[in-house]
Structures are given as structure tokens and as C-alpha cells.
Amino acid sequence: MNVNESITEVLKAEGVEYLVGFPSNPLFDTGIAEDAGIRTIITRQERTALHMADGIGRVSSGENIAAFACQHGPGTENSVGGVAQAYTESAPLVAIPAGYDQADTDVDPRFNSFLTYQPVSKTCEQLTDPDAVDDTMRRAFNTARNGRPRPSVVEVPKDVFDMDVDDFDYTPTSTDRSGPDPEGVEEVADVLLAAENPILYAGQGVHYAKAWDPLKELAETLEVPVATSLNGKSAFPEDHPLSIGAGSKSEPSQLHHFLQECDVIFGVGCSFTDTAYGISVPEDKTVIHSTLDAGDIDKDVASEYSLVGDAKLTLDAVNDAVESRVDGPRGRREDVVQEIQSVREEWLEEWRPKLTSDETPINPYRVVHEFDKTLDKEESIVTHDAGNARDFMAPFFEVTEPLSYVGWGKTTQLGYGLGLMMGAKLIRPEKTCVHIMGDGAIGMTGMDFETAAREDIPIMEVVLNNFEMASYDTEFSGHYADLAESLGGYGERIEDPDEISDAIERGVQKTEEGTPVLLEFLTAKETDKSIF
Length: 532
Known about the structure:
By secondary structure, this protein is α/β, with parallel strands linked by helices. It contains 20 helices and 17 strands. The strands form 3 sheets. It has a 6-stranded parallel beta sheet with strand order 2-1-3-4-6-5, sandwiched between helices. The chain has a 6-stranded parallel beta sheet with strand order 9-8-7-10-11-12, with helices on both faces. The longest helix is centred in the middle third of the chain and has 23 residues, at 333-355. It holds the Pfam family TPP_enzyme_C. It comes from Halococcus saccharolyticus DSM 5350. One of its GO terms (molecular function) is flavin adenine dinucleotide binding. Residues 185-317 form the Thiamine pyrophosphate enzyme central domain.
């Protein structure tokens, strides 16, 4: 058995279903992975493949780890952005880029993944000893699976792939969880019950821990509002009376209102990273920070109380402690719900003219509103792209099911959402997977719509075409519906706002028939955002 064969054995043992990337890498070129029953998918560019692996990991709550492979040199150079995006969004995957032959690895100007990828990966190793395949790959999968999910990288020099491996016997990794300090839990329960106006703030860690039920239980016991981060959007149903929406650059008024009015913020499964695409915690609030990554504690936001551990174990423990201290309803719910509804209705009334506008070119808020009304929320997974698409979607597209919205934004790479939804569709083929983007995003990754057609991945791409890139004074041109048709999918250009809903229904039907869809809406150059 050689290194190439032994790596394939590892992938099979670790339950890897998809190897995505770009030739030339022996894992693709020899056909060994495909022969082993792993589906191999070649994309038009390396970054999209990494985004697919990222989507698989996130939509499966980290249960399915995808592998990525690519060529040495230019392939690894093209891949850095995709690894970096997965790192900032805390997405698990294992990347296995080829490297130059060992004799050339450190010779200038050859690109060295082992050195270059370290700042944007959880672990990064170079495999040079063929008898170290099992230990090296086990470390990669263990670190991707456990603790804070992030990409692991193993660079394999080209000449190492063909080297023989002696006595290969691989044992797959396990997934382990850790719980919070019991004394800290008791203290947090006391603080929450003593607070006059607490709120809960749920991050992506709630998704990875599948802690949706205990989050809802705690909110209903305490009778308090619940917000989410953009990455955590859909961790709490937004049609729930206690929901105040997701924090982002553009966000609902009720979230801003309660963030200002609260005295205690309990953030669970979140990093509280200081970013333009999340909440800004006011200085006069008492912060309780629960996270899996101890390095996040006091990183950007100082916290008076902290709990380090898995979000589900933490919420279960806090629920037990809270329930042991309360006896029946607390009598707060009706007032809290009425306040949420009052602020929300006033905000929606302000935005309703744009959400229901009959103007042409179509107002992009009307497109978002029609998607919100038309899509079956229980059967859909949706994401935005960077820039305006994110700012239009985040406050006004209401989600009700866990993992039905893949939120992101820390590095905001244009075109990221296309790969995310291809990954989502692979792991959840029964769902309608929708990605809403603008002119800039389709210019970055649009050719990978052909990958969706070639690989039978029937996603729905939505282009808000205002012939301009966001607020930048840069004009574009293109007929993207025609492009989709030329690449093997279904394309439709919509100019009449009264046709939006019907076009969405036709698009859903086409995806159910197995055809990837691109709906192109000619939209106005909208600049207003729900920013406070």
C-alpha cells in the first residue's frame, strides 16, 4: 500500500462521502478515491470546492467532514481564500493539497502550503514520512471534529504520494464534548433570575451542539427575548413570539431596541467577535459568555461571567439550575411579547413600502419579501452573499427551522454562497437550497454554476442584477439567465415585480426535477439599510 492508498483508507474510515477540489492531485488523478466509493467533484476553481466542503460541514452540524484536494503550486495558491473563509466562519473540513517534491519544497519561489496556511487553519502539517500517514491524518480529523470546528491542512509532497507504507492499520477518531464548571452554572442561573431585562444571544455553536431545544426551553422558562448572531440565524425560530432576530450589519429594530434596554446578555455558542457584521455590545451591560473556545472569553467583549463548554451541555445544565429555582410562570411573558411586537410592527411599517413596492426596476426588498412568503421554510436552506444581498436578507427573511439559513460575514468573500449551497444540497438533497447574490458575487464564482449542472446538484441561484457592484460606482453588464442556460441549467430573467412569486415557484419545481436554476431579477440600485 502506498501513501495515496492509505490516505484514501483514512477518508473511508472517517466517513468522508465527498472529495472536492481540482486536479492535479493523485487522490483525483489515479481514481483511487472514486474506486473506494467516495464521490469526487471537480469544480471550476479551488475556492468554490472549499466552500462546498465548508457547507457540508456546517449544514450537517459537523457530523459530515468533507475532504479537499488540489494541485501543488498554483492550486494551493488559489485555495488560500477558501481555507481562510472556513477558518473565520468556524467550519470543519480537511484539506489535502499536494506540495512540490521534497527536494524543491523550500526552494524560492515555490509555494509552501505548510508555511502559508498556518494562520488560517486549526492545524497544518506536512506529511514527509510515509509511515506517519495514520498519525498525521488522525490529528487532522480529530482537530477538525473536536473543539471549535475549523479546517485542518495536511500538505503531501508529490513524490510522497507514491511511497510505500508499512503495516497500515487506521483507527478513526471520535467526537468528544466537554461541559461547563458546575459552580459557574449555579452562579449564572442566579444572575439570570435576578436580572430585570435579560436577553439570550445564540451563536453558531448552538447549531454544532444541536442545542435548539434547550435554548428554546431556557427562553420560555425565563420569558426573555432571544437574538442570534448571523452565523447562528435559525438557531431559534424567528416566528416565535420571543424572537428578536439576527444581529448583522443590517438588523431588525427590535434587536437593537432590546440590546439597548437589557441589563444582562447571555451569549451562548458565540464568540462575541468585534465585527461589522454582528452585534455591538453596549458597555453598561452585564455579559455572560458561554463558548466552546476559551480563547474567545474576554477577546473582544469583557464578560463578568463565563462558561466554557459544549452549548447543549451548557444549556442543559443552566436549564436544570434555573428550573430548580422557579416555581411556575414568572409573569413576564405577556409584557415582553407585546413590547417585541410593538417595536417590530413599527419597524415593519416603515419598511413595508419597499417590501411591497411595485416599482421597476424591481426593488430588491420586494424580491426578498416574495421569497420570504413563497418558499416552504420547512423544506428550504437559504444563504445570502456578501454585501447588499446579506443586508437585504438578514433582517427580512424569517427562518423557522434549525440550519435552514447559513449565515456568514466575517471575511465576506464575494461568491462564497454558491459553494455553500452546493455543499448543502449534497448533504440535504431533499431541501430547496437557495443562494441570493449580486453582480459582484456572480462575477467571482458564477462559472461554477456549470459544476452544479454537470454534477447534478440542483441548487437555486438568485441574482439581484442592478448592473452595479453594491455601493461602488462600478457598472457591470450581463444576461445571467442566458449564461445559466448556456451552462446546462434553467435560467429566467424577471423584470415585473408581479412575476416574482410565480418565477420562484417555477424555479423550485425545476430544482425538484433535478435542474439547477438561476433566477435573474432586474433590480433598482437600493441603498437604504436597516442600520442603527
